Sequence to fold (735 residues):
Amino acid sequence: MLEIKNLSASIGDKEILRGVNLVVPDGEIHAIMGPNGAGKSTLSYVLSGREGYEVTGGSAFYNGQDLLAMEPEARAAAGVFLAFQYPVELPGVGNANFIRTALNAVRRARGEGELDAVAFLKLARTAIKNLSMPDDMLKRNVNVGFSGGEKKRNEVLQMALLQPGLAILDETDSGLDIDALKIVSEGVNALRGPKFSALIITHYQRLLDHIVPDYVHVLAAGKIIRSGGPELALELEAHGYAGLEAA
Amino acid sequence: MAAVIETLETVDALAAQKYKYGFETNIAMDAFPKGLNEDIVRMISAKKDEPAWMLEWRLKAYARWRTMEEPNWARVQHPPIDYENLYYYAAPSGPAPKSLDEVDPELLKMYDKLGIPLNERAALAGVESPTVAVDAVFDSVSVATTFRETLAKSGVIFCPISEAVREHPDLVKEYLGSVIPVADNYFSALNSAVFSDGSFVYIPKGVKCPMELSTYFRINARNTGQFERTLIIAAEGASVSYLEGCTAPMRDENQLHAAVVELVALDDAKIKYSTVQNWYPGDANGKGGIYNFVTKRGACRGKNSKISWTQVETGSAITWKYPSCILQGDNSVGEFYSVALTHNYQQADTGTKMIHIGKNTSSTIISKGISAGHSNNTYRGLVKIMPGATGARNFTQCDSLLIGDECGAHTVPYIESRNMSAKVEHEATTSKIAEDQLFYCRSRGLSEEDAVGLIVNGFCKDVLKELPMEFAVEAQKLLAVSLEGSVG
Fold:
């Protein structure tokens, strides 16, 4: 369970989050929508531990662990996964090597045995097949020369292999065509289960047609100003944020 | 900022035990008096039981050296070296061992600790198949050369150079100093006067050397310079892959290492020379470490010959070295693949020279420089196309990676083309390990240091893949270890 209480954070002198309260129980998928500059990406970075974001108040616990006190890699080991809005290129680093190193680091931290190259490849090939991705995804260098859609699919592949307890998807749908959107959605839906929860940050209703959330929250000016069921997303789609803020 | 402070603390904590080859071996040593003069040169020659021509060669070199001045064009700084305060010869005392059985057990223990396989027995008994023959050089002498008999069956000569001077004088006379003239530079002249040992390799016509050859250099004695000399000759159609590794104990004072390596490839011959240089780099404050002033050059004398240098340089306080190729034979090929990593206060000024003389000669230069801490890392290279080198080609790629904001990367490429048909390409990049790359890796569960190791190894991939397999694995680990605590 993710419990965010009164979380405030700033970049430099600029206050971005101004007291966010949110609880995501295991097994649930919550969507966060909101206008540009509302603090959606900041929330995802603060939860995953990126440098440059100063937490000025509040707390964030995942399964009882104080996320804000942990290094990014410890958060990953605890089961937190961030699918990046802009996945990063790692020249010369093979995708298979990268994902295996990450998976083994996480497995080590969880007290599980490491996977050798053969065992990993078997696992990875199955995941790739399930996600209808091309085989060469593993052979290429991490995100180097990937199209926007391929980068996002690579995020979903990593998520499928790392099997996180909490996935934070930061505008994973932006720049995706319909086919890619389906693949990405299927990747998330495949993980759905009583021990998996997700925070889906998006601008658009269309992703939520494929990944149906349990709850939708609206983040504006650093605060959650409204929460509701999936129908809230439809309302936003129809009337925009402006009407909501006025209300 | 917190991360920076933490990093500094980590570096301090690691500095003491980080260099794991920094131990000293206690063994009875013979050393000549400090300082350099004609008598010392004579004593070295006499100790090696050398013929008169060799002594004469040394004395000439010594006389030339006296007239020369230390070069000062490299981008490195160090206090003046007191050449009179060095020992020019140090060796385990007693008669030279004739076989492995006679080698001092303390020495064998040391090589074992370093992970250098000097024990032939296991391999000979068929426990493992021999893939690497080793010549181990301890301070000024070669203490053991393995698998010589196995190699001799295919006609390969692999022995200490001091022995080659006595046993194969014609070959030595013909080739020694033929690639790097005695007075080529200050350090080659010094080496020519006082070189004490090193390896000699001769691969006869048409022979593909049946195993990797390797020399392992170890400086142990205090205040001692190491001046090894390596000469490798591949006759017509021969081929050989040669590996070189180096370590030294941790000491507060700087030690001088001025080696000379000459390679000769005749028609259709191939020589692949790989180095993993891990001399003691000094401590986190730049105290101590090896001055690695080395001259390496290969001559592609025959048509279709090929010389390939691969180096991974992580050690030494100062590295000054430019493994080069003289592409004399038509269609000959020269390659230089280099990773140079500097950390703390290390300085490296390294690169290559590709001299195109023959027709349709081609050369490739891939240089990867990594700077961390307060270090300075310079690539210096020359591509020279002579008037007769019609159809010559060169491709140079020179990439620098900066870690932190107090280090420097410099690129000094020289290109001289005197033939209109030549094609010379130069590409260069400078980048930093980006914060988003580190965060991306860490958000997947990698520690900061594993992330740096992964990114650096990716950066060096084009060079590391040129190394023989077992060396490549070692080199990858070495790069990661050398960068410990470098992120802030």
Remarks:
- Chain B touches chain A through 24 residues (CB under 8 Å).
- Chain B is about 25% helix and 35% strand.
- The first strand of chain B starts at residue 29 and ends at 31.
- The mean pLDDT of chain B is 83.
